[in-house]
Protein: allantoinase
Amino acid sequence: MENLNLQWRLLPTLTLLAASLFLLVFKDSAKLSHSECSLLPYNQYWLTSKRIVTPKGVISGAVEIKEGNIISIVSEEDWPRNSKTGQVVDYGEAVIMPGLIDVHAHLDDPGRTEWEGFPSGTKAAAAGGITTLIDMPLNSDPSTISTETLKLKVDAAEKRIYVDVGFWGGLVPENAYNASALEALLNAGVLGLKSFMCPSGINDFPMTNASHIKEGLSVLARYKRPLLVHAEMEKGSERHVKLEDDTLDTRSYSTYLKTRPPSWEEAAIRELLTVAKDTRTDGPAEGAHLHIVHLSDASSSLDLLMEAKTNGDSITVETCPHYLAFSAEEIPDGDTRFKCAPPIRDAANKEKLWEALMDGHIDMLSSDHSPTVPELKLLDEGNFLKAWGGISSLQVGYI
Ligand SMILES: NC(=O)N[C@H]1NC(=O)NC1=O
Structure:
């Protein structure tokens, strides 16, 4: 990100130190004052734990920190107890790990701070072990689709964030054919663009088609940055439920599930793959990259993505903790906290998602943290068809 020179730029945060401080703060936060929580006054210190996450696996050992830098990580057997200097803090069974990066969160600031906001959202991230998050361009008001609206975001984040934050910009019909507007947004520091292939639920963030996406990719290629796509495409002929049918049991999760079948994900991905080939070596958009957000369908959609990777398309895919933790069969009637899009599918699908993740066919996890106010979740009415679609999970998703 050579041309990012702003205070909020994405900082290198995969440090054990960040995670250690996170643990320290939250282990006994009820009892300790802020100054007592901090090890920073010590020039050199060791953190020990039975579970330290390292590139070579989880070890029992110690992390040595000197002048704010990690200078060694050693296993228990190799820890030089006799020659050790500085303070030692033992975390026992608590995990010491790098801070996580969440590439997909909606903090809704400015404009919908009653839904979330930078202060509460970034505190929730820290509580969930996340030390860097990238904020989505929609659900704030206005959406981040121009340099002017990006500036509003940056101003709103200034001095109000507790973890590192970067921003995605929006690719929408209004700017898709305006290369200089997209370039200005990328020059101003957005890390890439995001678009929807179905209605986004936010009026000033309309959906894009393959032609908009092709245009966006050609600009992104020059910046070597990604386009993130919400890949669901409504296939009218396949709508199994008529939303206006007043005999529907709208409190039943199975009713909602039928409104967004896996074929919507498959259709969107098929459409995307017609332009994804532009990203191949020597293609017209070489350098650009496509990233499918929050995959739920572990069947045909996943097969298509695996084939695209084999064909040389520059493409990756994420899923979210809620698709791996829950299954449709378990969702109680009326509990709209589980409503998200694409929907949480059945238990067999969940198992397939796990397999794909463990086999490396799913490239990463993101939270898709998308909170709203309780009234819009219609918790009393429990109407799955009318409630806001989005799960609030930053603080709990990974722990
Ligand atoms: N607008 C918005 O936050 N949409 C998100 N919610 C959800 O469940 N899926 C999304 O893409």
User: Anything to note?
Assistant: The CA atoms of residues 75 and 277 lie 46 Å apart. The pocket of 1-[(4S)-2,5-dioxoimidazolidin-4-yl]urea is lined by residues 106, 138-139, 200-202, 230, 340-341, 368, 370, 389-390 (CB under 6 Å).
